[in-house]
Amino acid sequence: xxxxxxxxxxxxxxxxxxxxxxxxxxxxxxxxxxxxxxxxxxxxxxxxxxxxxxxxxxxxxxxxxxxxxxxxxxxxxxxxxxxxxxxxxxxxxxxxxxxxxxxxxxxxxxxxxxxxxxxxxxxxxxxxxxxxxxxxxxxxxxxxxxxxxxxxxxxxxxxxxxxxxxxxxxxxxxxxxxxxxxxxxxxxxxxxxxxxxxxxxxxxxxxxxxxxxxxxxxxxxxxxxxxxxxxxxxxxxxxxxxxxxxxxxxxxxxxxxxxxxxxxxxxxxxxxxxxxxxxxxxxxxxxxxxxxxxx
Amino acid sequence: xxxxxxxxxxxxxxxxxxxxxxxxxxxxxxxxxxxxxxxxxxxxxxxxxxxxxxxxxxxxxxxxxxxxxxxxxxxxxxxxxxxxxxxxxxxxxxxxxxxxxxxxxxxxxxxxxxxxxxxxxxxxxxxxxxxxxxxxxxxxxxxxxxxxxxxxxxxxxxxxxxxxxxxxxxxxxxxxxxxxxxxxxxxxxxxxxxxxxxxxxxxxxxxxxxxxxxxxxxxxxxxxxxxxxxxxxxxxxxxxxxxxxxxxxxxxxxxxxxxxxxxxxxxxxxxxxxxxxxxxxxxxxxxxxxxxxxx
Lengths: 295, 295
Hints:
The structure is a homodimer of 295-residue chains.
Chain A: H1 5-24, H2 32-41, H3 48-59, H4 68-86, E1 95-96, E2 99-100, H5 102-105, H6 108-128, H7 135-147, H8 154-164, H9 171-196, H10 201-228, H11 231-234, H12 240-243, H13 249-253, H14 255-272, H15 281-292
Antiparallel strand pairs in A: 1-2
Helix pairs in contact in A: 2-6, 3-4, 3-9, 4-6, 4-9, 7-9, 8-9, 9-10, 10-14, 14-15
């Protein structure tokens, strides 16, 4: 029987949403910070990072429930970054996924604190929901998670992205920015899921290689869709990158070469999983989905 | 020979500064985020939290060097909170300790990201610098640290402080705000230092009780000095709380009762250490120093 992605994603997302809801219910009910965390965490996110994390645990033959804490932690970290990125001092966005952004629904101070609290709560939860693996090994998981956030990952990427907005950057710099800004967390989600599932060094390296490629492919595809996508299907305006003179893959290498590049990245991502059995079908299917988004 | 606080603090601060410097030197040298982290971390802070953390390790008979990683993590968390609190969306302060605040020296986006990066780096470092204790026990240390930051600690306190600025709060609410905003991190610094030093449950409870009292005593003393302190000695203006109609201990209970309250808190703090031997002299001496600041 071929693997069916849609019901798989639905089931996993519902488990992840349940776990996130349960986690937030532990926080003081009268807290305004919690209300803002809640608002942004339940804003219809696709749960890409936790889904990948749990799928990596599956791929190496582990029990995905063991990785649920870390998977949710990655979603909280992702949400924290969206809240802060939307602030007036950063991208100054009023709307996200059809709803007012956190600082519009609450206020700037509350949004700032809600982001901070999501980041610290991601760790607080990770320390509490210790999976049944060797604690020393778990500390390595936590280290990989934390490393993907700061100056070696997402935050450094966001800084460079802001600095690069004023001019067209080189293709090399664009790739470095994306690898830091979105790639680091995706790679770490897969790596951490793999470690918790009991993966060996070779498998973990393969999961990271897979993550690096799909992370970039996702970004290139986003850039392409901003050029040739259907606004009705995407649910957001297209052509905005070109209007803002933004450094994108289509802008730097042309639309056709950007498409080829995305396809090649997905082929390389699938190749990285060659040694895995059919327990990695969800990961393969997610990679193929990234291409299908364009069709 | 009586314990001498000044040379002790000088020595410890110099060790802490050295460890923080070494830690930051690991970050990418061309990173603007790192430059801003550096700027705020080396802004002449008194290193109160790491000093207390290491002193707690001493007090239970442990090796303070084992706690250096966690001690530095607490200083990074403290610095992150100062950077974000100074932002225009929060307290909107242009100067701190005689220098422009981070967002004035850099810009708002950089300050926001530098705060975020300090928080995530605090955890990254803590996972790397694992002390020679049982990893399961260490996870408890990390959990206590993370818990003191978010909705059960500092961030919740800052939120309530902002919400309380518009009216005079009750004495009970004022104490709750301070216990969350500054007390939680101080208590956790002492608790974590004690756990790393091998303290038993009774000792850890005593260290937390000590922390709760000195944290509050420090705040009450700050409030008192804002009424009757010498601006030349303090290095900052006085009378500002009354001008802003801020809820403070002198405002809510009168100056004389506020003084008595601070003295009582220090007495109670010292009482909490009754079962400790002279290895806790640094902690006792720090508690007494809080009273001496007023003289």
